[in-house]
Amino acid sequence: MRAGNRMKLRMQQALNLPSALILSIVLLLVSIICNMALAKESNAIPAESQPQAITLAAEDSWPPFANQFGQGISHRLIQAAFKQSHIEVNSLVVPYSRALMMAEKGAVDGVFNVTRENSTEQRFIFGNTPLFIATASFYQKKQKPILADNKWALPKGTVIGVIKSYEYGDEFPKLVKQQQLNIVTVANQQQLINLLLIGRIDAALMFDLVAKENLKKMGVDDEIIPAFANHSSDIFLAFSKGNPQAQTLASQLDAGLSQLKATDQYNKLLLVAD
């Protein structure tokens, strides 16, 4: 009887062995499939929803938009816009000409405060939405006014001061050639204003809010005054063509700026001074 029971038990164990093996294989397959599904789901999450960090070159002498302390309207707008996509912004504060060079070479992901015009579109990637619009004018010494009513009436040979590597609109090269203007290039706004004060140049070309900030700071806002307009610029954050994610970043910035404008936060950031 015991021998019969042992035989029966062994037969049951033999019959159960394949079932256990099959069950193990099934469980293994289910585990593999679940892991693949999770991986696919993770990859399907858009890159913009995942925290990132980018490095931008910021100009050091264009207050109230960007100053030597890494503060200003542009800093606030860019940080707030990218925050909508969970992107952290790290800024390197350098002279504008160096900022352009760094972005063009791919040393940084982008550069602050670039006018979108023919010359810059060949060098950088732009989104569709400017950070803001900035107007620029010819400035003169009050005691020595320019003998012209507009830029196209500037006397031939007029000496005009500008900042190195700044963009002054697509018309400016034509204006220089047509009116045979003599261009003096300097590194910053203070140098430009000083040249105007001592009579080394006839006029200085400056963006209006930037001129207002610097003239007031230097205490000469009653001596240097605007003569007439030069142009209005759409000012952008320009992205490096060396970054394969440049177009994605430009789209994320556009989306962030749109969200800021929808909640009126944009106007607050644009108007509030540091």
TrEMBL record:
Pfam families reported for this sequence: SBP_bac_3
Residue ranges of the TM segments: none
SUPFAM superfamilies tied to this protein: Periplasmic binding protein-like II (SSF53850)
Protein name: Transporter substrate-binding domain-containing protein
tRNA processing in keyword set: no
Keywords, in A-Z order: Signal
Assigned protein family: Belongs to the bacterial solute-binding protein 3 family.
Residue ranges occupied by any Solute-binding protein family 3/N-terminal domain in the UniProt entry: 54-269
